[in-house]
C-alpha cells in the first residue's frame, strides 16, 4: 500500500542511541464511501541513526480508487527525542501475465502478391510511443 518512513530516535543530551518505538494504524476505504476499513496496526522499534522504511502491503483489493489514512498511535516525542513518521508513497501492484516484456510490438498488414513468394519480408522501423513502467 505504501512505505511509511520512520525517523529514529537519538538521545542528544547523552550522545547515545536509544531505541524508540512508534506505532501507526493503516486504514483505507473506497473513495467517497463512509466506513474506513482497518488494515492493521504496526509497531516499529529501532535505534539506528538514519531513517528507515517499512512496506505495508494490503493484498486482495478490488480495482477501484482508494483513500488511505495513516494514524500515529504512539505519543509525539518530547524533549531531545526524534521520532517522526511520514507516508512517502503509495504504489499499485498489478499481477498480470505480459507476453512481450521490454518489447515493442509492430503489426503489419500487407497485400499478398507474387513478389513475396511465401517468404517473410524483412521490415525495419523506428518505433515511437509511450514508455510504460511495469513492475
Order of helices and strands: EEEEEEEE
Oligomerization? single chain
* Helical stretch tally: 0
Please give the number of β-strands: 8
The SS-based structural class is mainly beta
Helix content: under 10%
- Unreliable spans: 1-8
Gross morphology? elongated
* Share of residues in strands: 25-35%
The first-to-last residue Cα distance is 14 Å
Mean of pLDDT:
75
Radius of gyration: 26 Å
Strand order, main sheet: write it out. Answer: 6-1-8
Largest sheet: 3 strands, antiparallel
Describe the protein's architecture and organization.
With 135 residues, the chain is an all-beta fold. The protein contains no helices and 8 strands. A 3-stranded antiparallel sheet has the order 6-1-8, with no helix packed on it. The N terminus is likely disordered.
Quick overview of this protein structure:
This protein is mainly beta and 135 residues long.
Topology of this structure?
Layout lengths: L3 E3 L3 E2 L4 E2 L2 E11 L6 E10 L5 E2 L12 E7 L12 E3 L48
Antiparallel strand pairs: 1-6, 1-8, 2-3, 4-5, 4-7
Any key phrases for this structure?
single chain; 135 residues; mainly beta; three-stranded antiparallel β-sheet
Amino acid at each position: 500500500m505504501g512505505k511509511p518512513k520512520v525517523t529514529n530516535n537519538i538521545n542528544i543530551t547523552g550522545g547515545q542511541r536509544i531505541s524508540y518505538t512508534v506505532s501507526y494504524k493503516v486504514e483505507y476505504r473506497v473513495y467517497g464511501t463512509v466506513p474506513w476499513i482497518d488494515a492493521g496496526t504496526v509497531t516499529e522499534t529501532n535505534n539506528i541513526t538514519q531513517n528507515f522504511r517499512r512496506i505495508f502491503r494490503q493484498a486482495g483489493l478490488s480495482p477501484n480508487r482508494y483513500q488511505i489514512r495513516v494514524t500515529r498511535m504512539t505519543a509525539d516525542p518530547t524533549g531531545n527525542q526524534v521520532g517522526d513518521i511520514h507516508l512517502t508513497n503509495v504504489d499499485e501492484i498489478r499481477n498480470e501475465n505480459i507476453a512481450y516484456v521490454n518489447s515493442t510490438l509492430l503489426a503489419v498488414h500487407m497485400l499478398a502478391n507474387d513478389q513475396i513468394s511465401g517468404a517473410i519480408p524483412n521490415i525495419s522501423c523506428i518505433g515511437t510511443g509511450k514508455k510504460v513502467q511495469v513492475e
